[in-house]
Specification:
Two copies of one chain form a homodimer.
Chain A: H1 19-22, E1 28-32, H2 33-37, E2 43-49, E3 60-61, E4 66-72, E5 74-79, E6 82-87, E7 91-94, E8 103-105, E9 112-118, E10 125-126, E11 133-134, E12 141-142
Antiparallel strand pairs in A: 1-2, 2-9, 3-10, 4-7, 4-9, 5-6, 5-8, 10-11, 11-12
Chain lengths: ~150, ~150
C-alpha cells in the first residue's frame, strides 16, 4: 500500500559523528523511508527531533539538494542569514553547493517532526562551525585536515 | 533564505489534460518549488486541493518515483488496493513502474495541503481509468492509441 506505516518502520538515532559532535543529535530519531518504500530516485527521512535535539551539525553539501517539509512542532532554522522559525506546513530548500550551512534546532519543549528529502550522492559535506569534514568517497567524517578522529 | 516564502510563489491550476478529463483538477492549485528554490536533483510541488478536487487522474509512472507528505486537511488515497485516508503527517510513496494507479481525492469540506516530490523524467504515464496516456517524448497526453485529442 502506498501509505507508509510509519510506526512499523524502525526508528534510529544512529550517527556517524565522533562523540564530541554527536551529543546534539542524540535526540534525533529518524526513519529511512526510501528503502522501505522502494524509492530509488531520491532519499527521504522521517525525522523526530526531541526537545533540544538538532537535525545535524550545521552543514552544506557540495552535491546534494535537500528539502525539508515541516509536519508538526517547531524548530529554529539556523543558517548564514540568521535564525528563522519553522512550523507545520513550512518548507525549506537547501540547494547543493550554496555554501550556506544550515541546521534545524528544536528549542521547544515538545517534539518536532519533519520529512527531509535528498539524493544519495557521494559528495563532500562542509561543517562551518566545527573541525569536521566529509570527503567524497570517505564514507564518514574526518577532521578538516583529512585525519581520522 | 532557505525557508520558502510560499505566499510569494505563484500558484496555478493549469493542466495539460484535455477538457473532458480536466474538471477534477480545476480545484488543484499548485506551486512548483524546485525552480524557485534552485533545486535540480528532484522536483517538488506544494499543492492545495480545494474541496472536491483531485491531485490528478489516477495514474502511475513508468520511470518516476513519487512521494507525498500531507501537511493539512484530509484526502482519500485511491489505488488498486482500495481507499485509504490521508491526514496531516501521513506519508505515501509511489515507486516507479509499480503498475498501481493512484490519486488523492479531497472529499472533505476544507482544503487539503501536501507536498509532492518527484523527479523530472521523460517516461510514460499510465491512466487506468480513462482513455489517456502520456507517451515518453510526447510532452502531453494523447489517447491510448496514440491519437491526439
Amino acid at each position: 500500500m502506498p501509505k507508509l506505516d510509519l510506526d512499523a518502520i524502525p526508528q534510529t538515532n544512529a550517527t556517524g559523528y565522533p562523540p564530541q559532535y554527536a551529543e546534539v543529535v542524540q535526540g534525533r530519531w529518524y526513519r529511512r523511508l526510501a528503502p522501505v518504500a522502494g524509492l530509488e530516485d531520491f532519499g527521504a527521512s522521517h525525522v523526530v527531533l526531541q526537545p533540544g535535539a538538532w537535525s545535524a551539525q550545521r552543514h552544506w553539501h557540495e552535491g546534494e539538494d535537500e528539502l525539508v517539509v515541516m509536519i508538526a512542532g517547531e524548530a529554529v532554522l539556523v543558517d548564514e542569514t540568521g535564525e528563522t522559525p519553522m512550523r507545520a506546513g513550512d518548507v525549506a530548500a537547501f540547494p547543493k553547493n550554496d555554501g550556506n550551512g544550515h541546521v534545524l534546532q528544536n528549542r521547544s519543549g515538545a517534539p518536532c517532526i519533519f520529512v527531509a528529502i535528498g539524493r544519495m550522492a557521494d559528495t563532500a559535506c562542509h561543517y562551518p562551525d566545527i573541525d569536521m569534514h566529509l570527503f567524497a568517497g570517505a564514507g564518514r567524517q574526518k577532521r578538516k585536515d583529512g585525519s581520522d578522529f
